[in-house]
Amino acid sequence: MSTGTTHEFLVISRGQWDRESSKEDIQQSIDDFYAWLHRSIEEGKMKMGSRLSIEGATVSKQGIITDGPFGEAKEAIGGYWFILADNLHEAAGIAAENPCMKHGLFFEIRPTDAVCASAFKVMTETPNE
């Protein structure tokens, strides 16, 4: 049931292609993904994101690291896009239609939060007590 309030959800593409899948099958899933994405954008269900490059850097109080180690292979992030939906359940249902899942990728769906960070509120960065 639609509440009429659309929220933006960040979708993070994770994982790696199944080793058993042929390059032709993977390419077909990629082609199907882009067709599905563009159709969903036209329908107002999604917003474009981007692929991410293999190279990267981390920045912390220990300094800048540009040569890894980064996340493990199972934590590899391939790209991101946005889903527009009434709630997390609806957004997850839309993401579940992604053709790339059948070849090993999985997706993390996170609501975006327009609230500014605060040390006095429980947020994603707050340590567990």
What does this structure look like?
Helix content is 22%, strand content 27%. With 129 residues, it is α+β, with helices and mostly antiparallel strands. Strands 2-5-1-6 form a 4-stranded antiparallel sheet. A two-stranded antiparallel sheet has the order 3-4. A hairpin with a 2-residue loop joins strand 3 (58-60) and strand 4 (63-65).
Question: Would you spell out the secondary-structure blueprint of this structure?
Answer:
Elements: E1 7-14, H1 23-42, E2 46-51, E3 58-60, E4 63-65, E5 77-85, H2 88-95, E6 106-111
Antiparallel strand pairs: 1-5, 1-6, 2-5, 3-4
Please describe the structure with a list of short key phrases separated by commas or semicolons.
129 residues; alpha+beta; four-stranded antiparallel β-sheet; two-stranded antiparallel ribbon; 27% strand; globular
